[in-house]
Design brief:
Blueprint (H helix, E strand, L loop, with lengths): L1 E8 L8 H11 L6 E7 L15 E8 L17 H14 L2 H10 L1 H6 L9 H14 L5 H20 L5 E6 L3 H14 L2 E4 L5 H8 L6 H7 L8 H9 L1
Parallel strand pairs: 1-2, 1-4, 2-3, 4-5
Length: about 240
């Protein structure tokens, strides 16, 4: 098990400078701690590496936002409650909140187990979700544009909730957006420590890219907008 799991969106170790340089420096300057990294990317394959692998980086995992799972044939899950999931997603996308995220995470479980999360993008449930959200939020905009934007964003949410969490004592995200959602999910499912650091404006970009996903689920854990605590301090708190 890693001491620290760093969650990075669209940066380390495939982009040089900025957030990536900060992440590389954090790992390099703390050789007594074991790290793993979750690199969030749009789709496979990953681009060429910009940084050499450090000795205390145990694993590099990839979360591809376009990656969901579907199978042909009849559904293999009978315990999935579509109505409850619809209500939970609506509550989360409308107002955020740690409890709302926990409900979505719990209710999607049967689909994750059955490897049928792709059904959420091609189903009556998905159509009802996007129509309801469009009618409530942007009825005067182009539905075609709204639909494809929603599908990309919701698909990323589904991929983030389906991703196998690497075990760690502390999860440290260096941006909001999908990285923040994965960290919040890790805290919910594992009870591990969680830290959030804003670096070089990455949180501004992520927030703008996710207009329907509030960050209240993350902020509810911290009790404040963000924390600049370094991973070593986070480890000390987690081990108490």
């Amino acid at each position: 098990m890693a001491d620290i799991c760093l969650i990075v969106e669209g940066a380390y170790p495939y982009v040089s400078g900025g957030v990536s340089a900060w992440v590389h420096g954090v790992i390099r300057r703390q050789p007594d701690l074991r790290f793993c990294v979750v690199a969030i990317l749009p789709a496979p394959p990953p681009p060429p590496l910009k940084y050499d692998r450090l000795p205390n980086l145990d694993a590099l995992h990839h979360l591809y936002l376009s990656e969901t799972y579907s199978r042909r044939g009849r559904r293999g899950y009978s315990s999935f409650d579509e109505a409850a999931f619809d209500r939970a997603v609506d509550a989360f996308l409308s107002g955020g909140g740690l409890a709302e995220l926990a409900s979505v995470d719990r209710l999607i479980g049967p689909l994750v187990t059955a490897r049928r999360t792709g059904d959420l993008l091609d189903s009556t449930l998905a159509w009802n979700l996007v129509c309801d959200l469009y009618t409530r939020e942007m009825p005067h905009e182009s539905f075609l544009h709204f639909f494809w934007a929603w599908r990309a964003l919701f698909g990323g949410l589904v991929a983030t909730l389906s991703f196998p969490l690497p075990p760690a004592h502390v999860y440290h995200t260096v941006s909001t957006g999908y990285a923040g959602l994965l960290a919040a999910r890790a805290a919910i499912e594992t009870g591990a420590g969680l830290r959030f650091s804003r670096q070089t404006g990455s949180s501004t970009r992520s927030t703008r890219d996710l207009p329907f996903m509030t960050l209240a689920a993350i902020c509810a854990i911290f009790g404040r907008p963000h924390s600049r605590a370094m991973p070593r301090r986070a480890m000390k708190r987690a081990r108490r």
